[in-house]
User: What shape does this take?
Amino acid sequence: MRSFDAVLEAELAELAILDRRRACPEVDGLSRTMVTVAGQRRLSFCSNDYLGLADHPALATAASAAAHRDGFGASASRLVSGDLPAHRQLEQALARFLGREAALLFPSGYQTNIGVLTALAGPDDVIVSDALNHASIIDGCRLSRARILVYPHADGEAAARLLAQTRTARRRLLVTESLFSMNGDAAPLAPLAEAAHAHDAILVVDEAHALGVLGPQGRGLCAAAGIVPDVLIGTLGKALAAAGGFAAGSRGLRELLVNRARSFIFTTALPPPVAAAALAALEIIDSSEGERRRALLRAHADRLAAQLTALRPDTRGTPPGTAPGSPIQPFVVGTDAAALALSAALGRQQIFVPAIRPPTVPPGSARLRITLSAAHHPGDLDRLLLALRPLE
Ligand code: PLP
Assistant: This one.
């Protein structure tokens, strides 16, 4: 029998042959837009710190105060002795911000999707899910043991048809992202809400990438579309520049999740300084400073979207039309090797945009996922566009 290490090496070698072996780039740097990667200075276009809040002093101050008040670690799960003031304050603020009765924190957005989907759906149920939903939604669907029906990306009519065909299920869930993480395009939220309503299904919308950035005062794309999903999921790790996730909805939803969501119950609560930093970020998002940051980001997004459309030849993968103001701007290349080569070529020009390959995106649609931040300067975009042009 081969040694365990030899088995691992063989599997890693297979990934390498497919251009799918990954490694974590070693990043240093105070600012999220200017970093060093393995010792080399790079202008970064790949963080999810869309509003440039990760190094905002208000977040560090709030975190430090919470560490002194509540301790650094929560030291227990919420249901034991880890339910601390920083958690309660943040949940109340998130619920208020979103105009919902209640919110419940989870240690990450990933765990939020796992917890919500497994708490709400079981073997007698059906989950109707967008083909490009995030891995955390896919994993939540699978763990729930519900029957999973996948509809073509952003096809509201197909989702409605699947709901119509599954009337005998005990319960039906319709789940989508609002702003898709790898395409930067938006779900057809109004038709999806209509379909969920017509077929008596529970609508779950993951606003991970829209919250803080899009919609009225950064309240997300559901607010922009005027719809109220049964469950709104968010992360605190992107525009809120902290870590953690949450589900918002009715008081009954919160109560059920507290009792049924295993990724909430069987895990240590979020560190209080992290919750306090997220609360400070939420206060900025809901202020004139938040508006100013969103306006800067919007200007960058509009400019980059127009320029990328002009740059992208027809032969590349289907260019997904990004949502207006999307901080996520994919540059679809096609093969994994081509995406890696383009990323390396940008690296030689001191620009950091890693290649995104399957399984994160469908095979044949490897890409550069360019993300923008209010912390970028117009000159940073000039540099990126200049670097992309000769690579055509
Ligand atoms: N949902 C979506 C749509 C995401 O893109 C991500 C990204 O990481 C998550 C959930 C997970 O959030 P977190 O990073 O907080 O675990």
Q: What stands out?
A: The radius of gyration is 21 Å. Confidence is low (pLDDT under 50) at residues 314-319.
